[in-house]
Design a protein that fits this description.
With 186 residues, the protein is mainly α. The protein has helices at 3-32, 40-64, 72-101, 105-127, 134-146, 152-178. The chain has one domain.
Length: 186
């Protein structure tokens, strides 16, 4: 492996750590959201930060290591690699968290989701104006009750595959933006 490739790989691995920490904090907030609904306000802004963080990290790679010599496919590939490394760290944390730190966490989350749907159903039933939605809401509650709870390894693998799919799609516009050379003032 030549020195430029190793520099890029080292950069991607180093930058994956803070990105993974960001994903882990987002995961913990999402888990805590089931017991404190006000935390759901934080999830959407946190999700919006991820594309900007990817753009900034790939742009920094382009400027500091590749000296503005990057093609769109390279930017896309580097972004997917960065997300893969960060997702591996996050998946490992999710497995350890759900297997050893908080073993019954996945059951608690499912029960909290069922309780929230039942609370919504009671609130809507009390108003009486949403009767046409009640059968669908009942179906959703029953589906949640019958759904199997994922094991910690299944949860980690699902998170990893979801993050990879999202990165493949998300990196297309980011790569198109990053590949552009900065305009030189004349």
């Amino acid at each position: 492996m030549n020195s430029l490739a190793s520099l890029v790989n080292n950069y991607l691995m180093k930058m994956a750590v803070p990105l993974a920490v960001w994903f882990i904090v987002e995961y913990l907030i999402r888990n805590a959201m089931y017991s404190n609904v006000l935390l759901s306000i934080l999830i959407f802004p946190m999700m919006l930060v991820t594309p900007f963080a990817l753009w900034w990290l790939i742009r920094k790679l382009r400027r500091e290591i590749l000296f503005d010599a990057i093609r769109g496919i390279q930017a896309w590939s580097f972004g997917v690699q960065l997300m893969f490394y960060a997702s591996l760290i996050e998946a490992l944390f999710i497995y350890v968290y759900n297997q050893y730190i908080k073993p019954g966490n996945l059951h608690v989350i499912q029960q909290a989701a069922i309780e929230q749907y039942e609370n919504v159903r009671q609130t809507l039933a009390a108003t009486g104006s949403f009767e046409r939605y009640m059968p669908k809401l009942d179906e959703a509650i029953e589906a949640l009750k019958e759904a199997p709870v994922l094991t910690p390894i299944e949860t980690a693998m699902t998170t990893l595959s979801n993050n990879l799919f999202i990165s493949i799609v998300l990196m297309i516009p980011i790569a198109l933006i990053v590949r552009r050379r900065p305009q030189v003032p004349s």
